[in-house]
Amino acid sequence: MKVGLWAFAFWLFLFSRALAVEVPVNITADKVFGNVSKRVEARGHVVITYDKVEISGDSAVYDREKGLLIVRGNVVVKEFPASFRCQSIVYDLKTKRAVLEGVSGKISETDYIKADRIERLSEKEWIAYDGEYTPCKHTCPDWSVGAKRFRILLGESFEGRWVAFRVKEIPIFVSPVLSGPIVKKRTTGFLFPRFGYMSEDGFIYRQPFYIVLGRSADLTLTYEKRFRDGDGKSAELRYVLSEKSKGRLYYYRIDRENRRDWKFTYSHSFYPSELLYGRLNAELVNSREYYKSTTTFDVEEKTRVYTKSDVTLSKLWEHAILNVNAVYLDYLDGSSSTVYQRVPNVNFYLMDIPLPKTPFTFSFDTELTYFYREAGGSSYRLNLEPILKYSRFFGVFKNTMKVSYLISKYQLGGDRSIFKFESKTVTNKYFHLGDTVSVSLNPELSFRFVESENQEVNPFYDGSDRVGKKKEIYSGVTGYFYEDGKEFLRLSISGQYDLYDSEDPWKLWRLDLDLYPLGNLELKETFYYSPEENGLKKSNTYVSVSWGSLSLWANYYSSDLTERVRYVRWGTELKIGVFSLSYRQRYDLELSQDRERSYSLAVNRGCWSGRLTYRWVKNYDNTVDYQVSLLVNLVKLGSYGYKFVGRK
């Protein structure tokens, strides 16, 4: 029976090709009857293929004149990457639109859905009614969202109204609107709310509202409720002036019972070409107390000493570069009025201009800086430094000599002029050790001279106002070791010999070692050795090893360069399926006590990931600050956090 039906399908295919007006429809079933040029019905084990679509079911009707295909009963639809089951489907072969009833399955590699009814508007856009959406591929999804109506863009986003958020099919809360991070058409409305908890502020609820401002700008307004003390409000404006010019403005304020804290930031960048770039950043806070009010998880932000605002403009030519930069640092301890601010700094550098009929190149470095101070003493500094450079090869050696003369003009205080000279010789030697190991050696020998100049009468704005005399020899070599073309060792040794110091001319020697002989073993080492003191001034050792799902690492650090610091850190991580356990510890060798510990449990289920962390830090007064944090990231919905902090 089916052999004859396969012949019928083949005949239908030839008939369609002969008319050359439509893509062929192939139908196989237990029974097929009707007029092939008008209407065909099929019953029993129906399988239909059309273009890249395969549909199977209990019965089907193909109306060739209207271009409609209707399949009912135990329907399975496959159109890569979509694959789902439904009770029935009505498919318009001309527009490729479809209506499906009683649907469940996946409509892309990252989108899974159940719905009473689905309308397919295009290959990308689907609308689901009385549906449940999830990016989780598990039979019982870890989380999902249900709504009366969903709009879904395959692999990109979803959008719905009066959405119920569910965990393991159990409704947790309802939101008036929900949307993923990218939508085909931006629309004004409520975004998904955010939740958090802090020990000092209690439960925190944030509700953002998104406003479309034309084709290239949008505004997000957020209300934040802290149930113990304070309400927050924020506004974020984003705009795009052109493909190479865009900006962002952000304002956040929190009102507490006894105070108000706020922060304002603005950024704009433009890069009309690879040779021109500009950037503006502004950051203001009312006081240091703002960082105690914020819910940020960033420890660096909570310990900020100042805010920074700056403007930068860079222009590049073939042999020149212009940089204009203005920086204002607002110190949160109130000392900004006593600090010199660079407003602005202008640097023009003429680079390596060949001098005609000579082997020399000429450069000229010009820098003008105006130092502003509210407390007084504002003035400018002008640096002029012409540079003459000469390079020559002596066989495999390359020698470069550079002569420069630094001239500084101060508005307040004396001037200075300093002569500089440098001669550097480098080479490269490549050879083999055996059949598989090769080595590349890169030695360097340099002589550096800086003229002695009394600069005590000059102002001190920054470190460049004091240029020390120098007459030294620098030597170093860096070796790269390869096995079968893959690098497994880098070794670098360098040192300085001070010709001005007749008693202890040898200064710090430095050794850097990076060794990774095996894929699961790594060793990094940095030494600073002082011949004058006959001892190590700094040591930084790092070792890591891994076996399958277990990894271990350790770090020893010791330094006497500025102040004595010695500690050891170590940690481990164990991965078990979707779970990851990690532990970190820092031990202060100077104080002989633990300073920091961290325990963490992470999970990655694909459609969501999370991390639970307990961390404590011992302060120098022997008090302990501890923190418990939970961070959950839902695919397409963003991150949500809980933090509990305290001191004991």
UniProtKB/TrEMBL annotation:
A GO term from the CC aspect: cell outer membrane
InterPro entries listed in its UniProt record: LipoPS_assembly_LptD, LptD
Keywords carried by this UniProt record: Signal
Signal peptide extent: 1-20
Any one biological process term the GO annotation gives: Gram-negative-bacterium-type cell outer membrane assembly
Domain of life: Bacteria
Protein name (Swiss-Prot/TrEMBL): LPS-assembly protein
Taxonomy of the source species: Bacteria, Pseudomonadati, Aquificota, Aquificia, Desulfurobacteriales
